[in-house]
Write a structure and sequence with these properties.
- The complex is a heterodimer.
- By secondary structure, chain A is mostly helical.
- Chain A has one domain (5-216).
- Chain A contains 9 helices and no strands.
- In chain A, helix 5 packs antiparallel against helix 7.
- The two termini of chain A are 35 Å apart.
- By secondary structure, chain B is an alpha/beta fold.
- Chain B has 2 domains: 3-208, P-loop containing nucleotide triphosphate hydrolases (Rossmann fold); 219-308, Alpha-Beta Plaits.
- Chain B contains 10 helices and 14 strands.
- In chain B, helix 2 packs parallel to helix 4 and helix 3 packs antiparallel against helix 4.
- Chain B is elongated.
- Classes of the chains: A mainly alpha, B alpha/beta.
- The A-B interface holds A 4, 6-7, 9-10, 13-14, 66-67, 69-78, 156, 213-214, 216-220 and B 17, 47-48, 51, 54, 56-58, 72-74, 76, 78-83, 85, 87-91, 93-94, 98, 101-107, 149, 151.
């Protein structure tokens, strides 16, 4: 897989400021948060990942802008462009979370909190690596849906299934089934919901790739 | 032109936006090294046609092909096409160097030396940011990127927009040079007809989304005339030899732009009361697009002397 660096920097350009802000926010949060980091129990972290994923897709998917049309009119294959959209996405996520990973794993965060006389540390430090893997997993589940969404919304045939609606419907059905499935055990319920979400992400990710090849640019 | 060396071919190409047909049943063929002038009033579908050829829009019906490959979904052959289209520009903070670098990613044939020298000739530094360039410099930068890209097909929508006369001539000189030296094909949409008349091999006039005329320019020069005859004269001779493109009456004369049905027929003698003269591409364009706008010769002389004053 070849990376065209000028193309990569071009695609990444709209994410520069966002990445700087998200990286600063995440790093500060990880360093200063005085409770043990537990991803799905921490609403702030969940909202942060959702917002970051949404904004990445929003900035990369300004289909009606002149600069988007310019890039797509330069003769690059749609596969190459799609690959670089994902590389820019990955770069933004990694630039945001690598400093956090360094803080958690080295463990600078633990030292800092210990220095602040936080009684949880360094005892809790060893469990926090899961915070990183779970947040990255959540990005992996959300980004295909958000990327699919901007492509779908710019197609002339907008009656394609909406990714957002699908996810909302999934959660409503999930909550409805949750109580009924609980009978079979909490782990099974959680696993079923997780697998359901992964399935939606994979399907929409593949469908997004397919639609991107047919993405209309510069339609008046 | 054989099927194997056709660069661009459209077959019944049609596109509508929300039910409004913008382009209808357009069938064209362009060969290697040809320069095709795409003419027509605003809103007749020139830009849409160019976007369809460039693989940016999906046809509602029909097909556009480049080197035998369908343009939709965009084929990998698109790297051989360089476009300068309206409403498409880089972000304002981009440097000229970055635009050239991006283009050089598409094709290994990108000529940095040519790009740098063409920019320098027009006082454009490769370190300049897009927002710091004038309108003409912006247009020239995009044209330079296209010309230096080593593309086999150039699709240029109003390339002369914002360029001064000297730069326009330089541009068209470069297009002709590339066509002669490397067999580069160009499709050029322009409202400055006198400019494209100098370089075009073929002319297409679009009216209401349809091809009204597609012909080699040389053939048009030989076959199209403006004839003037008294109203009472028998015009059946003219209609039997030629297609009447447009006509208008004055008090006592009928003025018509006609196209002889073949080159041989142009040599036929017309009755004495019928005078004929050659027309420019601009006159022909007006005849096809706005028949009522054609000026009588005396009006044209008046207009010309007014302009010279």
């Amino acid at each position: 897989m070849s990376i065209q660096w000028p193309l990569f920097f071009w695609v990444f350009r709209p994410l520069r400021l966002l990445t700087l802000v998200s990286s600063s926010l995440a790093t500060s949060y990880v360093l200063l948060h005085d409770k043990p980091l537990e991803f799905f129990l921490d609403l702030n972290a969940v909202v942060f990942v959702i917002s970051h994923s949404f904004l990445i897709s929003l900035f990369l998917g300004r289909v009606r802008s002149e600069s988007f049309a310019f890039l797509y009119s330069q003769g690059f294959s749609r596969d190459l462009l799609w690959r670089h959209v994902w590389l820019a996405t990955l770069a933004s996520v990694l630039a945001t979370w690598l400093p956090c990973a360094v803080l958690i794993l080295t463990p600078l965060r633990s030292q800092f909190q210990d220095w602040m006389q936080n009684p949880w540390f360094p005892l809790m430090a060893s469990t926090e690596s899961r915070f990183l893997t779970r947040s990255l997993l959540f990005y992996g589940m959300l980004l295909p849906i958000f990327h699919y969404e901007w492509i779908r919304s710019s197609m002339p045939f907008r009656d394609q299934v909406s990714g957002h609606l699908l996810v909302i419907a999934y959660f409503v059905i999930g909550l409805f089934l949750n109580e009924r499935l609980w009978y079979f055990g909490a782990d099974l319920t959680r696993s079923a919901m997780f697998l359901g979400f992964i399935t939606i992400s994979v399907i929409l990710g593949l469908f997004g790739y397919w639609l991107h090849k047919r993405l209309e640019v510069g339609a008046s | 032109m054989t099927e194997s060396n056709i660069v661009m071919k459209t077959i019944d190409l049609t596109r509508d936006f929300g039910g409004k047909v913008v382009l209808e049943d357009v069938s064209l063929t362009v060969g290697p090294g040809e320069i095709l002038a795409l003419l027509g009033p605003n809103g007749v579908g020139k830009s849409t046609l160019m976007k369809l050829i460039s693989g940016l829009l999906m046809p509602s019906r029909g097909e556009a092909r480049l080197w035998g490959e369908s343009c939709w979904p965009p084929s990998p052959e698109m790297y051989r096409v360089a476009c300068v289209l309206d409403g498409m520009s880089p972000p304002s903070g981009t440097r000229v160097r970055e635009i050239m670098s991006l283009k050089s990613c598409v094709s290994h044939r990108f000529d940095w030396k040519l790009a740098t020298s063409l920019c320098e000739q027009h006082q454009i530094s490769t370190a300049s940011r897009w927002r710091a360039l004038s309108k003409g410099q912006k247009r020239w930068t995009l044209l330079v990127a296209a010309l230096a890209s080593g593309a086999d097909l150039l699709v240029l929508d109003e390339p002369a927009d914002g360029l001064d006369v000297a730069t326009r001539r330089e541009l068209y000189g470069l297009l002709r040079e590339q066509a002669n030296d490397r067999g580069v094909t160009s499709i050029v949409a322009s409202h400055i007809i006198a400019d494209v008349e100098r370089i075009a091999d073929d002319v297409v006039i679009l009216v209401d989304g349809r091809v009204r005329l597609h012909s080699p320019l040389e053939q048009l020069r030989d076959e199209v005339f403006e004839v003037e005859l008294p109203l009472e004269a028998d015009n059946s001779v003219v209609t039997s030899l030629a297609e009447v493109i447009s006509s208008r009456k004055t008090d006592d004369t009928l003025i018509a732009v006609i196209r002889f049905r073949s080159l041989q027929l142009t040599e036929q003698e017309l009755p004495g009361e019928i005078s004929r003269r050659r027309v420019s591409l601009e006159d022909l364009y007006l005849a096809y697009t706005q028949p009522s706008q054609i000026q009588a010769p005396e009006e044209r002389h008046e207009l010309a002397s007014e302009r010279s004053r």
